[in-house]
């Protein structure tokens, strides 16, 4: 090997370090561009690593060039610059290690790891400053500078490369990158060994050209990163296609199959049943009042409930052929082993029991009820859509009552379902265009023999059919789920009437409004009533809220909480149709109400049935003992009035006194009361505090 003179060695060294610095800074710019485009954190760290390596190489190129021009003067400050260069190098390999961690774990390291890396880099530079001896070039100098530079960098890069090789799979890009890091680290170990064991001339050649080898290996790493990013893009595209295919056939939230998948499977189930003399059963399971669940525990909580329901259906003891979610709160099951109607209903009841078990959502526990609609092959059709449509019709029927039931499709249900579909836009238009109107029926106090309030009764002024009674449209309102909207309309109109009475008469007689089940089963009613008081500037004791006994019993826990809060706000609460429920006397004590309205069926039979007299007497005495007043509705004769007064009834309402009347006639009635010097009874006179 020819002898390499000092000036030539320094010239090669200056050129090599300069080329490496330019290459690394250009690579840093490329990585930063990729980082902004792909949003991969490891690209940012490796860009910082190149930015740190670059200044170190510039310092080494400067030192070598200065030694060519003024060797003696360069010795005086080369020690400090070598320490700065090593500090940059330690910082660079710290960024390399942090980037490798990001690539492997797909997340940024904790801040304290970054602080540790920066601290170690700074300490390494300080130690190097005091340990290094002045040197112009590697040839003939002490090995301290080369030892620190090549040992630490080589050790870290070999460790990082082995870690990445093991963790990042079989892609060509990651393998090229980890292989490039390993090659640079291994090259540093070779250089380190050469410094200690090779003769001076060989060391001069090796040290002069090793930077050029580093440039080549860095170029290989660049190619590896580009291939890595292209592979990542391809994998992302493949994953997106697979995900799209999955979502085409499955529900994204619960993971069960969706409606399209079920529709495509039902013909296969039908063919199997036809070949094996079996009957296919489709069950649609609809969660009752799921909107209330979402309003109570939030959308995310509602999603957790749906996931739990899907899990229970998938793990049901009688394994179904398919479990699907076909709409927001409706699931579908398919069975092929149910021949008799009794078996079908038993299995449906078992499903209801499974779903009714408590569900834990965070710190809250709730129970859900489910209605089930059923259709069968071959009885109800041989096509997917026909079976699903008829199961949907049966489900609509099953969810009409306060307690969801199990309903098997029967002929004739289609007509009712079609009529409901046609009625919905008509009813919405009626609410939007104020075709509904409130009639007011007076209520009288027995003791004071005067008007004590009104009950608001809704009527529909149909543009073609004239005035319609509630029986002609309220059932459709309930079946279509429009009860809450209609209740809001009634409450706002009743509050507006009270506000106008306050302005016109300076006095207000209370108005009782009958609310549907959904209103009392979630806390949004409390916010509505508070807003109503603010919007119309009325007193809460002017509005009395009525709820039927069966509704109160259907969701006692939530209903009790809402009613109690309304009572605390000052609203009067009464139980309507009392005596028709399944647990009247047992729960009377616990209901936070102040008035009980006896159902008209007891009043109608009062003179013919002694049992009704006995029951009424017991109910009135019990109510008075619990501090609650009693009003009887449906009084049509003087005999009924006298008997109820004798039994101790407090208030009365019925056609014997007055039919429901338009607002203008109710206001004339009020004017006569005022002319007779009769004013509204104070709240304490007709409502005992609970």
Describe this structure in words.
This protein is an alpha/beta fold and 690 residues long. Helix content is 62%, strand content 14%. It has 24 helices and 17 strands. The strands form 3 sheets. Strands 9-10-12-13-14-15-16-17 form an 8-stranded mixed β-barrel, surrounded by 4 helices. A 6-stranded mixed sheet has the order 1-3-4-2-7-8, with helices on both faces. Strands 5-6 form a two-stranded antiparallel ribbon. A hairpin with a 4-residue loop joins strand 9 (436-445) and strand 10. Helix 2 (41-69) runs antiparallel to helix 3 (71-105) and helix 5 (144-167) packs antiparallel against helix 6. The longest helix is centred in the N-terminal third of the chain and has 50 residues, at 200-249. The protein is elongated, with a radius of gyration of 42 Å. Residues 133-145 and 686-690 have low confidence and may be disordered.
């Amino acid at each position: 090997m020819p002898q390499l003179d000092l000036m030539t060695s320094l010239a090669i060294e200056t050129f090599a370090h300069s080329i490496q610095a330019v290459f690394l800074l250009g690579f840093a710019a490329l990585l930063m561009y990729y980082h902004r485009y792909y949003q991969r954190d490891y690209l940012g760290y490796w860009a910082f690593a190149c930015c740190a390596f670059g200044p170190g190489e510039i310092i080494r190129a400067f030192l070598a060039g200065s030694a060519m021009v003024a060797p003696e003067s360069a010795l005086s400050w080369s020690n400090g610059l070598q320490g700065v260069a090593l500090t940059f190098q330690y910082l660079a390999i710290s960024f390399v290690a942090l980037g490798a961690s990001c690539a492997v774990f797909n997340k940024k390291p904790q801040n304290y790891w970054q602080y540790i890396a920066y601290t170690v880099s700074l300490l390494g530079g300080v130690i190097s400053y005091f340990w290094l001896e002045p040197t112009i070039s590697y040839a003939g100098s002490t090995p301290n500078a080369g030892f620190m530079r090549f040992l630490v960098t080589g050790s870290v890069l070999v460790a990082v490369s082995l870690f990445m090789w093991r963790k990042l799979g079989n892609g060509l890009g990651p393998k090229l990158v980890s292989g490039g890091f390993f090659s640079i680290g291994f090259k540093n170990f070779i250089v380190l060994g050469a410094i200690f064991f090779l003769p001076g001339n060989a060391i001069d050649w090796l040290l002069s050209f090793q930077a050029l080898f580093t440039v080549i290996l860095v170029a290989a790493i660049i190619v590896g990163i580009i291939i890595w990013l292209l592979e990542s893009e391809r994998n992302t595209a493949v994953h997106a296609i697979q995900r799209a295919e999955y979502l085409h056939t499955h529900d994204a939230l619960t993971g069960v199959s969706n409606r399209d998948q079920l529709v495509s499977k039902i013909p296969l189930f039908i063919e199997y049943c036809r070949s094996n003399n079996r009957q296919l059963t489709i069950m649609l399971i609809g969660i009752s009042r799921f909107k209330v669940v979402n309003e109570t525990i939030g959308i995310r909580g509602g999603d957790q409930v749906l996931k739990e329901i899907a899990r229970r259906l998938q793990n049901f003891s009688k394994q179904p052929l398919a479990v699907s979610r076909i709409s927001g709160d409706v699931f579908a099951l398919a069975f092929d082993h149910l021949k008799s109607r009794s078996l079908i209903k038993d299995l449906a009841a078992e499903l209801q029991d499974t779903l009714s078990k408590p569900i834990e959502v965070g710190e809250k526990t709730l129970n859900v009820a489910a209605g089930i609609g059923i259709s069968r092959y071959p009885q109800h059709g041989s096509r997917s859509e026909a079976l699903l449509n008829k199961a949907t019709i049966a489900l609509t029927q099953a969810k009409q009552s306060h307690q969801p039931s199990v309903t098997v499709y029967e002929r004739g249900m289609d007509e009712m379902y079609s009529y409901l579909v046609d009625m919905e836009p008509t009813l919405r238009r009626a609410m939007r265009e104020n075709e509904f109107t409130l009639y007011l029926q007076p209520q009288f106090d027995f003791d004071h023999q005067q008007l004590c309030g009104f009950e608001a009764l809704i009527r529909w002024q149909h543009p073609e059919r004239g005035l319609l009674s509630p029986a002609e449209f309220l059932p459709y309102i309930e079946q279509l789920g429009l009860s809450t909207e209609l209740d809001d309309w009634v409450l706002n109109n009743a509050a507006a009437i009270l506000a106008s009475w306050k302005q016109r008469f300076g006095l207000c007689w209370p108005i009782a409004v009958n609310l549907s089940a959904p209103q009392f089963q979630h806390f949004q009613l409390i916010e509505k009533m508070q807003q109503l008081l603010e919007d119309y500037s009325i007193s809460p004791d002017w509005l009395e809220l009525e709820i039927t006994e069966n509704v109160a019993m259907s969701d006692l826990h939530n209903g009790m909480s809402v009613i109690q809060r309304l009572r605390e706000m000052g609203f009067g609460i009464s139980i309507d149709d009392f005596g028709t429920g399944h647990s009247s006397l047992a729960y009377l004590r616990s209901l936070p109400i102040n008035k009980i309205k006896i159902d008209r069926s007891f009043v109608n039979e009062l003179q013919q049935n002694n049992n009704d007299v006995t029951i009424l007497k017991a109910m009135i005495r019990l109510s008075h003992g619990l501090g609650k007043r009693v009003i009887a509705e449906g009084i049509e004769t003087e005999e009924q009035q006298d008997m109820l007064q004798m039994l101790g009834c407090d208030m009365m309402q019925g056609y014997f006194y007055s039919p429901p009347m338009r607002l203008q006639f109710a206001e004339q009635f009020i004017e006569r009361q005022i002319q007779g010097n009769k004013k509204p009874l104070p709240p304490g006179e007709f409502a005992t505090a609970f």
